[in-house]
Amino acid sequence: MTRRLIEDRIAPKLRNDLLNPLDDSATLELPAGRVCFTTDSYVVQPLVFPGGDIGKLAVCGTVNDLAVMGARPVALSLALIIEEGLSLEVLERLLESLAETAREAGVPIATGDTKVVERGRGDGLIVNTAGIGVLGDSVQLGLSRISPGDAIIVTGRIAEHGLAVMSVREGLEFETSLMSDAAPLNGLAQAILGAGADVKFMRDPTRGGLAGVMADLAEATGFSIEARESDIPLSRVCLHTAEMLGLYPLTVANEGKIVVVVSESDAEKALAAMKVHRYGQHAAIIGRVTDRAPALAELVTRAGGRRIVQRPYGEELPRIC
Amino acid sequence: MKTFSGLNSERIDALLASIRSVCEGLAEIRLMEVCGTHTVSIFRSGIRSLLPKNVRLISGPGCPVCVTPSGYLDAACNLAGRSGVTVCTYGDMVRVPGTDGSLADHRAQGGDVRVVYSVRDALRYAMDTPDKEVVFLAIGFETTAPATASAILEARRSDVKNFSVLEGHKLVVPAMRTLLSDPSTALDGFICPGHVSVVIGSAAYKPISREYGKPCVVAGFEPIQILACVERLAMQVREGRADVENVYQVAVKEEGNVVAMQRIEEVFQPAAATWRAMGSFPDSGLKLRQSYQEFDAARRFGLKTDGDYEPPACRCGDVIQGKVEPLECALFGKTCTTTHPIGPCMVSSEGTCAAWFKYGSVAR
Amino acid sequence: MCLAVPGRIALIHRSDSESDARTTATVDFQGSRVQISLELTPDARVEDWVLVHAGFALQVLDEGEARELWEYLQEADVVREIPVFAENPVREESER
Predict the structure, then answer these.
(1) Contacts of A175 in chain C (CB under 8 A)
(2) What is the pLDDT of residues B256-265, one digit of tens each?
């Protein structure tokens, strides 16, 4: 049953030279030097949401984890845990999306595995991907390189993914023009690194949102992170949808954005490189690193006040009160 | 009053200048907001850092989650654990701990808990799944009570037998009276809740200003409105007046929403209610009228909701009455954090402790 | 305590039953639309601004003030959108 599923339905969608032999392992040829290796598992309800689905997400998430390290992704693995009862039509659609995203990213699915579990044990579909990327010798990214004065850039409008997924959650459905921003960012990341700017650090603000990354940066570097609320790119739809649900855009997940820390003098150069890229059109400098003590992530609000930005906790639920 | 001139910084600067001049030379002015959304807006916008030092904003019992007693949560968790029962709730209640864990914990153990945006979604779910008992957690102040009443009326019209509500609504004006009756609270005025006032009307605060001599100003939630409200309150304090004013006229009428009040009146009657960590006081909550008791989940399932247990050393009760600030609680920020909340004020996203912890307070 | 958000009525759905209580409206929150009950604001009309809480319109907002609200939203430092729901005249007018 599983064998036929793989041969008939899954493998044809993902066809590439590494996967085609369907051997026990894929054989990769990597250049000498540093290699990045990462894995993540994807669980999302519903499986399909505006602007994406679990297939696209499973590629983007892992590709982006490599991309923000400065690595060029060279291969992904794919494990599917399919719950009995998932329609083949839905599965095929998700795989097509996954394959298309992998093609866009230019990364082959080199090896894979499929298991089918009993009904009630699988959430429809659970996907795991792992990725390998090669890190060029010139790439020097790290929290330790961050220093006061550095500029903080976000590559586009925030909060789109989390809100788009919420719009189709059972019991909370609402009609929206919002789409998930899920996108493979290896191209954008390479464009940023190739701009000749002194880029010091990159991270994708997924779960926990921009607030989570800002709080992490302050904690890990020992410097303050200061952002201006009015400079943070945010669409009007997102602003009002978040307001309607009682959520704060800074804490909502993104799947197609990078937070970039770059030396002050090179900020405009890096920004220009982002803006010409498809996924960086709305990039903006949102703040800077300061030596203000104690080390906190802070937001200068539209009203001119200051407040501390903290890592959000737990699951963000719409609230009424 | 231009209520929505927004984030226009010139207007904010002008208001701040006016507040500074009005407050100059006055003793400390203690103003309480009795609305969690005000609390959150004040923290998010950093208003505290902009006000003169002698203006103190105190957060009162304005968060429906924080004032819901643990006994109510225990009853809700009990229901979630029963087979054939689905508990529908606003997202706010999911993480609040009762004496035996939260609804989130009970859901993890297989309980059927659904987050809804509206009580209408809960009623629709009941109609779609007639083989399940659907219980809606009816919490919130006067803003939210008309929605619950409407759903009960619709359940009656459509003869929905498997829908009931666990009644936990609270009323704001009786809570304000209780706070004022306690001399240790020492307040100079109230920032009155915008959206409660949409329903009850600004006239509802007249007895408070008259009987207790305290100014009451209704405000919306944009920083500019909160500042305008603080300006009016400070002005009244300076002039020794105690009037009801309204800087949220775009939404709040003197008489409120008469239809909404009628719906509450039709389905509910005032009753003694237990406020978490504050105790029980008369007519401060709602209960279903005799003729609607078939929709009372506590009755249908034989549960009590008014038990009140507080974790040792937790000072949420004092915090929501404005007697102490979160920093004065021995647990705050140490064992009680937003990641591991102990008291209700830390759990709710608009709880005073959560607001202090999450949004911090750089100045003051 | 109570989150309520202004939105503009795009469509009203009158129930064919005798009860006004079942009248609902599709309300546009600047690009996201939710169906809500008009039971508590029976006088609300298409294009009115209403304050929405927990799936119910709680109040019709005064026209003049609502326009100010709109101007404030235009002023806010928010990236301008491509018009959404462009097929809808209410929305087009709103986008100016």
Answers:
(1) 26, 32-34
(2) 999 999 999 9
How far is B132 from B84, CA to CA, in rounded Å?
A: 5
Query: Which residues, listed in sequence order, are joined to residue B276 by a DSSP beta bridge?
Result: none
Mean pLDDT of chain C: 71
Which residue in the block uniquely carries the two structure tokens 């693995």?
A77
B neighbour chains, 3+ CB pairs within 8 Å: A, C
Whether the upstream peptide bond of residue A184 has omega within 30° of 0, thus cis, is no
C-alpha span between B194 and B246 (Å, rounded): 9
CATH number of C5-95: 2.30.30.140
Place of tokens 């104690």: A294
Average pLDDT across chain B, whole number: 89
B 106-165 → C contacts, CB under 8 A: 117-121, 140-141, 143-144, 146-147, 150, 153-154, 157
Q: Which residues of C touch B194 (CB under 8 A)?
A: 4
Concatenated DSSP letters for B304-362?
--------TT--HHHHHTTSS-GGGSTTBTTTB-SSS--SHHHHSTTSHHHHHHHH--S
Q: Which of C52, C76, C85 is the closest to A177 by Cβ?
A: C85
Q: Tell me the CATH number for domain A143-308.
A: 3.90.650.10
The Cα B274–Cα B287 span in angstroms is 12
Residues from chain A that touch B95, judged by Cβ atoms under 8 A, are 314
> Is A194 in the C-facing interface, judged by CB distances under 8 Å?
no
Examine the pLDDT at A54 and tell me if it is beyond 60. Answer: yes
CATH of domain B70-171+256-301: 3.40.50.11740
User: What does pTM read for this prediction?
Assistant: 0.83
DSSP B213: -
Residue A284 has a pLDDT of: 97
Note the pLDDT of residue B2: 34
ipTM associated with this complex: 0.86
- Indicate the residue type of A162: G
Model pLDDT, residue B352: 84
Residues of B in contact with A215 (CB under 8 A): none
Residue B273: beta bridge partners? B281
Question: Which pair of structure tokens corresponds to residue A98?
Answer: 């996954």
Does the pLDDT value for residue B362 go beyond 50?
no
Structure tokens given for A181: 């921003």
Peptide bond into B270 cis (omega under 30): no
CATH number of A2-24+31-135: 3.30.1330.10
With H, G, I as helix, E, B as strand and everything else as coil, classify residue B8. coil
All chains having 3 or more CB pairs closer than 8 angstroms to chain C: A, B
CB-based contacts of A91: which residues, under 8 Å, 6+ apart? A9, A82, A125
What is the C-alpha to C-alpha distance for residues A46 and A125, in angstroms, rounded to an integer?
Answer: 10
Place of tokens 């998700």: A94
pLDDT at B358 over 80: no
Kindly write down the DSSP assignment for every residue of B104-162, as one continuous string: HHHHHTT--EEE-SSHHHHHHHHHH-TTSEEEEEEEE-TTTHHHHHHHHHHHHHTT-SS
DSSP A233: -
User: In terms of C-beta density within 10 A (0-12 exposed, 13-18 middle, 19 or more buried), how is residue B32 classed?
Assistant: buried
Phi, psi of A261 (to 5 degrees): -105, 125
Instruction: Return the DSSP state at A139.
Output: -
> In the predicted model, is pLDDT for residue B173 greater than 90?
yes
Q: Which residue has the higher pLDDT, A318 or A278?
A: A278
CB A280 within 8 A of CB A260: no
Helix (H, G, I), strand (E, B) or coil at B191: strand
Secondary structure element (H or E) that encloses residue B70, with its range: helix B70-80
Within chain A, all domains assigned CATH 3.30.1330.10 are found at: 2-24+31-135
Mean of pLDDT over chain A: 92
Return the half-sphere exposure (C-beta side, CA atoms, 13 A cut-off) of residue A117.
12
- Tokens linked to B169: 């609504």
Q: Which parts of chain C have pLDDT scores under 50? A: 1, 74-96
